[in-house]
Amino acid sequence: MGNPKGFLEIDRKTAGYRPVNERVKDYSEVEQVLNEKDRKDQASRCMDCGIPFCSWGCPVSNNMPEFQDAIYKGDWKEANTVLSQTNNFPEVTGRVCPAPCEHACTLNIHEEPVTIRENECATVEKAFEMGYIQPEPPKVRTGKKVAVIGSGPAGLSCADLLNKWGHEVTVFEKDEELGGLMRFGIPDFKLDKEIVERRISVFREEGMKVKTNCHVGVDIKGKDLLKQYDAVVLAIGAMKPRDLEVEGRELKGVHFAMDFLTQQNRVVAGAKVKDKDRILAKGKNVLVIGGGDTGSDCVGTSVRQGAKSLQQIEILPKPPEKRAENNPWPYWGNTLRTSSSHMEGCERSWLVNTKRFIGDENGNLTGAEVVDIEWKKENGQFKMVEVKGSKRVIKTELALLSMGFVHCIHEGLADELGVKYDKRGNIVIDEKQATTKAKVYACGDAAAGASLVVRAITSGRKTAENIHAELIKK
Fold first, then answer.
1. Is residue 136 situated within a structural domain?
2. Would the pLDDT of 187 be above 80?
3. How many helices (H) and strands (E) does the chain have?
4. Domain count, the chain
5. Structure confidence by residue, pLDDT tens digits, 152-167
6. In this predicted model, what pLDDT tens digit does every residue of 436-451 receive, in sequence order?
7. Using CA atoms, how far apart are residues 474 and 398, in angstroms rounded to an integer?
8. Do 255 and 371 reside in the same domain of the chain?
9. How far, in Å, CA of 409 to CA of 174, rounded?
10. Structural domain of residue 68, as residue ranges?
């Protein structure tokens, strides 16, 4: 610990965001950066606790005290080396992770945790700037071949490690570019796509093979891959969205959130979309149904498209501003989260259920009938009860369904391979990430259900380790 009194002498300081009136006019990243002195000061606040709860709280088990100390000392190369030992995409998690490490930080007892997430991002940016991150192709190849289906954080993390260990890895991606939801799902104002491409370029130069616009299960059969490869990894995500099966769901103007976000990301990247297919918030009253991160992304995107008004509703209760007594440190703090997008203008409501959508004679959405609800416990289970007299209509011409994802897509590849699913529809795996089908593994959201980028990275790394251990036996 370079400065044993850092946490006493220096207050927590975050980089903050670009001014609202400036950032809503473009899709550039909203988060600002601190100067190098301030960043070193923030790193010096780490107490180097005897028990690093931050590492315990981090799904990839980043060694927080070590890389904070390296930053404080100005040793950016060492800081990056420490981060790279556990995380394949620190530049991504440093931007979009909700930072469970900070929730677990000892200083969060007083709600002043170390700015771990920002420090992580600063480390990688400095490492790229100074040329510390360079392609390092394996010196020896094992002759073993692995196919990774899907190029999100789980698939690419798995592929990266297996390639580094000398196996011949081919990543198959149904979309036109690699990255999964890192590229197509997360808006550019949170994660510039050049950041994603920069890391993927390193992977390519290290020998990772890539096949884009190749939908396994459609363009090529999974059984054919099993004949050609020693192992096949299903990193296909949990892309089956949770639908809202109510009257009027078919009206023009009701869309899944991810359809809205992925289309806008492609437009920002230069793609042309026909007017009849364009999902636009411009001049419309927008209703976002669902209060999570994806819903927040819909808010920010709608603001930039020029929405007339914005409402976001959530069926669950409003989280508390501070930790509840049954939610102590160092566990994840289940508290209210307000994103940069919410700060740009959005009315938020909780305990609201959508009853039906209303349209005009031409089939266009004009409103959503909603009702306030309460959650009451009956026979040990919570039951949703409507509040009498609270039914009302929210005027809206664009409703975005952002209620999460239920499981991976079964139709096509997964069904063809004959893997088993659990009761939630996720692919069943054992402790080695292996499915019920020989030579087939699964990782990330496909096996665990929709979760955080950082958890997907962890799953991909674990899968790579198990496949490597199996392949070197042969």
1. no
2. yes
3. 18, 16
4. 3
5. 999 999 999 999 999 9
6. 999 999 999 999 999 9
7. 56
8. yes
9. 13
10. 6-129
